[in-house]
Design a protein that fits this description.
By secondary structure, this protein is α/β, with parallel strands linked by helices. The chain is built from nine helices and nine strands.
């Protein structure tokens, strides 16, 4: 795909040896020579790093993670990205062949600052599809109030304009997850667009950091209160 700008893929890794090769393989074929994959590794003790380095591709850059959990690992990756658009990536999914092209076309046509696409959710252990559409499962869509009450942003399906970095970073430590924060900050500073294209296979397995479950009422209220407080602090600065 010819374009006059580069893109970045921000990937957070930790002990991802089982699936990371298939993920990188699905990404690298969609990148141009000037693009990059920034891999922030949070201290993997398995073969993750050796697998990554075996590519010997200058577009793949490994940096040391802060060892403060997945939120700060992603923040570290995003901070080091230099491309015009930043694609967030988990270490264990599979990108569809038309993902990059479809997302970039959406940015150019719709003039938004954040694109979130749908995905197929599959169980890697049982070898079966759990949900044909994450959007339908989660009732996904834009809206600040909507996504404070019930987050429908999913990081592995998100791409942001790099101009948002100055608003997104730093990501607060005490909020639940990075994707909700990034999505809400995007909506505050532009337009977030949810598109129905299913552009990754979202892998669920025993080692997932994030779980597809609901918290208790108390935990949900506590998490929302912390998020709102951090958003207000961001606005007041």
């Amino acid at each position: 795909m010819k374009r006059d700008y580069s893109i970045s893929v921000a990937m957070a890794t930790y002990n991802g040896e089982e699936f990371i090769k298939k993920q990188i393989d699905s990404i690298i074929v969609q990148l141009n020579p000037d693009d990059e994959i920034i891999i922030s590794d949070d201290g993997s003790t398995d073969h993750t790093i050796s697998i990554v380095k075996s590519y010997k591709d200058k577009r793949i850059k490994v940096i040391a993670g802060p060892k403060k959990g997945v939120k700060q690992n992603f923040a570290n990756a995003i901070e080091h990205c230099k491309g015009k658009y930043i694609f967030l990536s988990d270490q264990d999914d599979i990108w569809m062949p038309n993902k990059v092209r479809t997302v970039l076309n959406t940015f150019e046509e719709k003039k938004c600052v954040c694109v979130v696409h749908d995905c197929i959710v599959f169980d890697s252990n049982k070898k079966e599809i759990l949900y044909n559409s994450f959007f339908e499962y989660r009732n996904s869509g834009s809206g600040i109030i909507k996504n404070i009450i019930k987050n429908t942003y999913i990081g592995c399906c998100m791409t942001i304009d790099s101009n948002l970095k100055k608003y997104i970073l730093p990501i607060p430590n005490n909020i639940e997850m990075h994707d909700q924060w990034i999505g809400l900050i995007s909506e505050k500073n532009g337009k977030s667009l949810f598109i129905d294209d299913k552009l990754i296979q979202y892998r669920r397995h025993n080692s997932n950091v994030t779980k597809m479950k609901s918290y208790s009422f108390y935990v949900m209220i506590s998490n929302r209160a912390k998020l709102i407080l951090e958003l207000l602090k961001k606005i007041w600065r």
